[in-house]
Amino acid sequence: MHLIKLIFKYLRYLIVAKTRYSIHSPFVFKFYSDIILSDKHFYPFDSIAKVRQALLKNQDEITITDFGAGSMFNNGKKKKISTIAKNAAKPEKFGKLFFRIIEETQAQNIVELGTSLGLSTSYLASANKNANVQTLEGCPETAKMAQKVFNSQQLHNIKITVGNFDDTFPSVLEKIGRIDFLFIDGNHQYEPTLRYFQQSLPYIHENTIIIFDDIHWSDGMEKAWKEIKENVNVSVSIDLFFVGLVFFKKGQVKEHFILKY
Ligand SMILES: C[S@@+](CC[C@H](N)C(=O)[O-])C[C@H]1O[C@@H](n2cnc3c(N)ncnc32)[C@H](O)[C@@H]1O
Question: Which CATH class is domain 2-258?
Answer without folding.
Answer: alpha beta
